[in-house]
Amino acid sequence: MPIPLITLGISEGFSAIPYAYTATKLAAVAAVIAALKYYFGGARNPAERVMHSKVVMVTGGTSGIGASIVYELASRGAQIILLTQHPPTDVFLADYIQDLRDATNNQLIYAEQVDLRSLHSVRQFATKWIDNSSPRRLDMVILCAGTQSPRSKTPDLTEDGLVEDWQVTYLAHAHLLSILSPAIRAQPPDRDVRILVATCSSYLRGELDFGSLEKLTTGATMDSAPDQTKKKDPKNRKDQKEKKDKKKKKKKPTDLYATAKLALMIFAHNFQKHLIAASKRGDEDRPVNTRVLLVDPGFSRTPGMRRWLTDGSLWGLLLYLLTWPIWWLILKSPQQGAQSFLWAAMESPPALFYSSSSSSSSRGHIVEGSEKKKEEGGWLIKECRRMKFLREDVTDEAVGKKLWEFSEKQIEAKEKESALRRAKEKKKKEEKEKKQK
Ligand SMILES: NC(=O)c1ccc[n+]([C@@H]2O[C@H](COP(=O)([O-])OP(=O)(O)OC[C@H]3O[C@@H](n4cnc5c(N)ncnc54)[C@H](OP(=O)(O)O)[C@@H]3O)[C@@H](O)[C@H]2O)c1
Question: Stretch 392-399: mean pLDDT, rounded?
Fold first, then answer.
C-alpha cells in the first residue's frame, strides 16, 4: 500500500496522493500531542533495587500516587504495611488488598488502621510498633497521605479539633515519625533506611506565622472575621463584604494545605538533623543510616487533584469532564507521579547519597571530577533528581526549632483534650448502661 502511494507521489506530485495534506496535518498534530504528553509526563525512574525482605510502611497508599508506589514496590517483593483510615475488616479494603496481592503476586501486604484525623489513633499504632521487645525491621516509611479541602467550603475539623488539611497533611505525620523515632534509630547500622515524605510545590505559598498558627489550625480564624453586616451604607456594605471574602479566602484551606506542606518539609529536614544528632550521642559516632527524602511528584491526575480542580462541586466535576483532554495532556498519571518516589526508594546509595557540586546536573548521579562529599539526607527530590530548596526557611535552624516546639505543644494539648473527652464519653456510656441494667 505505501509503495504505490510513494510511486504516485514521485511520478505525479504530492497532491496526487489522496488525502495527502489532511494526513500530513493530522500526523503533525499527533506528533505535537505526543511530544507534549511526553514532556508533561516528567522523568522516568531508571533505578532498580531488590526490594525482597524490605519492610515498607506507607500512609496514603490506597489511592493516587501512593497506590502506584505501593504497586511498584509490592511487585518487587517488598513487604507493605498500609496505614489506612479504615479498619482492616472493612470489606472494600480487604478486597483492595486481596486484588493487590493477586496482581503483584505478593502475599506480604497488610493494613493497619491509622486514622490521621486522630492523634490517638496514630499513637496507638506507633506505640504498638515500638513496644515490640526486639525492634521490628523497618526499611522505609513513605508519608504520602494528604488532604486539601475544597476552596469554597469551610474545611472539616478533625477529632482533635484541628483543621483537617493541617492535621492529616502535617501534624499526624510529625507525630508518627516522632513516636517511631526509637524504632528507626534501632535499625542495624548497615541497613539503608529511607523516609520518603510527599511534598508539593505549593509549599512556596505556605506562611508559617507562629503568632496566628494556633488560631489558623484550629479553624478559629475562619469564623472570626468581623461582622460588618450592620453598616447601613449599601455601597460600603458591598465593599466590606468583598473585604471580608478576600480575608476569608486568604485563610482558606488551600493556604493551610500549603502551610502544612511547608511545615512538613521543615519538620522532615529537622527530623534528619535529629537522627544525625542521635547517631553521634554519647560514645557512639557512627554515620547515620537513615535518610529523609522530600519528594515532589509533580501535578498528577489523582483523586486528590480532581477534588481540588472540581472544588468538590458537581458543576466543577462537569467542567472537569468537559475539559478532561486538557488535564489528560498536562497532568501526569499517578504512575508517572510515582516515578520520583520510586527513584528515591530504589536509587543505589552512592548515586543518591553522594552529591555533585551542581545539584541540577546529571539526575543527581556523581559527575566525573565533581566534589564527592557524603551528605546526610534531608534533600528535595523532583523529576528523579536532587533539587535545591527554593525557600531558605526550610533549612533554617531557628524556624525548625520553633516549629518542633509548636508541634510538640499542640500535639500534647490536643491529645490531653481528646483523652478527657473520651474519658467523659466512656463515663457517660457506663452510667447509661448502669441505668439500663
Ligand atoms: N496529585 C498531585 O498533583 C500532587 C502534587 C504534589 C504533591 N502531591 C502530594 O502527593 C501525595 C499523594 O497525593 P494524591 O493526589 O495521590 O493523594 P490522594 O489521591 O488524594 O490520596 C490521599 C491519600 O491519603 C489518604 N488519607 C486521607 N485522609 C486520611 C486519614 N485521615 N487517615 C489516613 N489516610 C488518609 C487517603 O486514604 P483513603 O484512600 O482511605 O481516602 C489516600 O490514600 C499527597 O501528599 C499530596 O499532597 C500530590
Answer: 93
Q: Which of 62, 119, 171, 306 best tests ligand 1's pocket when mutated (most atoms within 8 Å of CB)?
A: 62
Stretch 26-50: mean pLDDT: 94
Give helix 119-130 / helix 172-185 axis angle, nearest 10°: 10
- pLDDT tens for each residue of 249-261: 544 544 899 999 9
Catalytic residue list:
261
Q: Are residues 380 and 405 in the same domain?
A: yes
Q: What does the block give as the cell for 224?
A: 472570626
Residue whose CA is closest, atom 1 of ligand 1?
Answer: 300
The DSSP 8-state label assigned to residue 396 in this structure reads -
Instruction: Give the distance (Å) from ligand 1 centre to CA of residue 86.
Output: 14
For the stretch 94-106, pLDDT in tens is: 999 999 999 999 9
Pocket test for ligand 1, best of 97, 200, 307 (most atoms within 8 A of CB): 200
140 beta partners: 56, 194
Residue 22 confidence (pLDDT) above 50:
yes
Question: Which position has the grid cell 502506584?
Answer: 68
17 within some domain: yes
Ligand 1 atom nearest to CA at 59: 34
Q: Are residues 77 and 140 in the same domain?
A: yes
Name the DSSP letter for residue 235: H
The pick from 141, 147, 264, 333 for probing ligand 1's pocket by mutation, whose C-beta has the most ligand atoms within 8 angstroms, reads 147
Phi, psi of 200 (to 5 degrees): -155, 145
Give yes or no for residue 221 CB within 6 A of ligand 1. Answer: no
What residue numbers bound the domain in which 36 lies? 2-40
For residues 292-308, give the mean pLDDT.
95
Q: Is the CB of 287 under 6 A from ligand 1?
A: no
Across the chain, which distance is largest between two alpha carbons, in Å? Answer: 102
Ligand 1 within 6 A of 42 CB? no
Cell of 229: 453586616
For the chain, what is the domain count? Answer: 2
Q: How far is the CA of 146 from the centre of ligand 1 (A)?
A: 4
Whether the pLDDT of residue 15 is over 60: the answer is yes
| Cα–Cα distance measured from residue 202 to residue 285, given in angstroms and rounded to the nearest whole number | 37
Identify the band that residue 241 occupies on the pLDDT scale cut at 50, 70 and 90: low
Question: For residue 30, is pLDDT > 90?
Answer: yes
Predicted pLDDT at 219: 81
Residue 104 lies in a domain: yes
